[in-house]
Write a structure and sequence with these properties.
alpha+beta
Length: 570
């Protein structure tokens, strides 16, 4: 069948071979067999057609998918000869009838290995039935009871949670089969799921009524739960500062209101409104603090810590509208229609008492901020400007404004007493309103910045990045994002380029090397090689996941502010 080819030069024969072997399946031509049944090609060429030689050359093509050579009348094809030559060693020539240098007739055998390619698998919905499913999902999505799951195959997998090392999962196919066994058909299972969703929706609609009934039940039977070891929210820290401020500002409002009614002073009215605004705003802060310590739930997976910023933001708006607005209004009315002022003796006494009480609250807030700033290693100014604790910041600024407001009001009232001109008193009201407007503007700005999700300081980001880059399993860190999610709690996210060699060594250190070597020696076919690689490949992926968990745990331990870590494999 190669008589016509014998008259062609060597490079023409090579082109002929490439043309008929460029695809995996060759069409039958010139008596060549189909590549699915042929394994090797044997042909003898005259040495005169090989440049630089004087021998007869035998060319053997063998497929690496075959364990042994077939007869000389079979051919083999490859997906790409260029790729095969690039991935395999150079062809090795052997002399069959003596060295060619002697000039005698001899033959050389050139062996070319052809790369074997596994058949591409089609991963459809049938393959995804081997996915794992948790106990909760099996009960919710397939309407099963815990007793129904006891007889199913249990698989222990690495837990994604910090508080547990491993947890139990089931094969989805097993759960689906058990659900059909329990409910009889897909239609019955669908009806049950629909019924349960309707009951759940009805429960949500009647949630308020259910909570009321639960409260009545607890009041009737009493609370039998043990006392929690959790610290009380308002016994120390920002909660304590806010409660002290509420009590003092409430008393100040009452006495200032009496002084305004007695004297008719515009400045005293502004101070009374100021104390009322402070009391209402600090009550709002107390609500925000109580809500911020609630545990995360499915609807709010990152918790409620931002409630403090929301309460502080509303407080700033309240100060601006009620405190500054009313003070400006009363001051302008006093300038347009000045009224004579009665004796200011009682007003001075009340302002003096207010100065002492507001100053005491201010000192409590300053001491709390100094303590927290020292714990975090930042200055007093940085702690306030970065709004680490919005509740304490509000108390600090409100009490600072209150002390300054008392001084402004007393000064303007004194000028009015000395000169008899009521315009000074009205100007004092405008001054207090301007002071409150400046405080409210600062609170609105800082809390808005915090709610937008600002980044932490660059020095802290660099510290976290260096820790990860110094780990042997990490090659590089990309796309780093460290966001303050409230109350100095940080969410850290980064793309991590892992060193696969280190991860593989970490896996091999825990294995029996002799057993792995025996498994390698037993590999003879592509199917056995595939099974070997699938087994250890899955284990190496689990090892990579364990490395991610280790880095996240160490990152949280070294940096207590980091509460949520998302390391994505690059």
């Amino acid at each position: 069948m190669f008589q016509g080819l014998a008259q062609r030069p060597w490079h023409a024969l090579c082109r002929f071979y490439l043309q008929h072997h460029a695809t995996r399946v060759c069409q039958p031509c010139h008596g060549w067999k189909d590549s699915r049944t042929t394994r090797s090609l044997w042909y003898s060429l005259p040495a005169s057609y090989i440049p630089g030689t004087a021998t007869t050359t035998q060319i053997h093509f063998y497929s690496s998918t075959s364990g042994e050579k077939d007869g000389p009348d079979k051919t083999s094809t490859t997906a790409s000869p260029d790729k095969a030559s690039a991935s395999q060693p150079k062809p090795e020539a052997t002399t069959a009838h003596g060295p060619s240098a002697t000039g005698q007739s001899a033959s050389e055998s050139i062996h070319v290995k052809v790369r074997a390619v596994l058949k591409k698998r089609d991963y459809g919905s049938k393959y995804t039935k081997n996915n794992f499913i948790t106990v909760v999902r099996a009960m919710n999505e397939f309407c099963l009871k815990p007793s129904d799951l006891e007889q199913l195959r249990k698989i222990r997998r690495r837990s994604p949670h910090d508080d547990t090392e491993a947890f139990t999962v089931f094969l989805r196919s097993d759960v689906e089969a058990k659900a059909l066994e329990v409910w009889g058909s897909h239609e019955a299972l669908g009806r049950e799921c629909k019924l349960r969703k309707e009951v759940e929706q009805e429960y949500k609609e009647n949630l308020f009524q259910n909570q009321k009934l639960l409260k009545e039940y607890k009041d009737f039977l009493g609370n039998t739960k043990p006392r929690s070891g959790k610290r009380l929210t308002f016994s120390q820290g920002p909660g304590k500062v806010v409660m002290v401020a509420i009590c003092i500002n409430g008393l100040n409002f009452f006495f200032k209101l009496l002084a305004w009614v007695y004297t008719g002073s515009a400045s005293m009215f502004s101070e009374a409104i100021h104390s009322l605004a402070d009391t209402c705003n600090q009550a709002l802060l107390a609500v925000g603090i109580s809500q911020s310590v609630k545990n995360p739930d499915p609807g709010h997976p990152y918790g409620f810590s931002n409630m403090r910023y929301i309460a502080s933001l509303i407080s700033g708006v309240g100060i601006f509208m009620m405190g500054a607005g009313l003070s400006w209004y009363h001051g302008i009315i006093g300038l347009m229609n000045p009224q004579p002022i009665e004796s200011l003796l009682w007003a001075y006494c009340i302002l003096a008492g207010s100065l002492v009480s507001e100053g005491a609250t201010l000192l409590v807030a300053i001491n709390e901020i100094k303590k927290n700033a020292g714990i975090r290693g930042v200055s007093f100014y940085e702690y306030v400007m970065q709004s680490h604790d919005p509740s304490t910041n509000v108390v600090l600024l409100e009490d600072t404004a209150a002390v300054l407001g008392v001084i402004i009001a007393a000064s303007c009232m004194g000028l009015t007493s000395l000169t008899g001109n009521p315009y000074y008193d009205s100007l004092g009201s405008l001054g207090v309103g301007t002071l409150l407007g400046a405080v409210s503007t600062f609170l609105i700005y800082t809390n808005t910045e915090a709610l937008l999700g600002r980044s932490i300081q660059p020095e802290q980001v660099q510290k976290l990045t260096e820790f990860l880059e110094n780990d042997p399993a990490v090659r590089a860190i990309h796309d780093v994002k460290a966001t303050d999610i409230g109350l100095s709690k940080v969410r850290f996210k980064a793309e991590v380029d892992f060193d696969g060699r280190v991860v593989t060594r970490s896996y091999l250190e825990k294995q029996d090397i002799e057993q792995i070597l025996n498994e390698i020696q037993q590999v003879k076919t592509p199917e056995e090689l595939e099974n070997f690689m699938l087994k250890h490949g899955e284990n190496i992926i689990d090892t990579l996941g364990a490395e991610v968990d280790r880095l996240e745990k160490e990152l949280k331990q070294r940096n207590p502010d980091v509460r949520h870590v998302d390391l994505e494999i690059l």
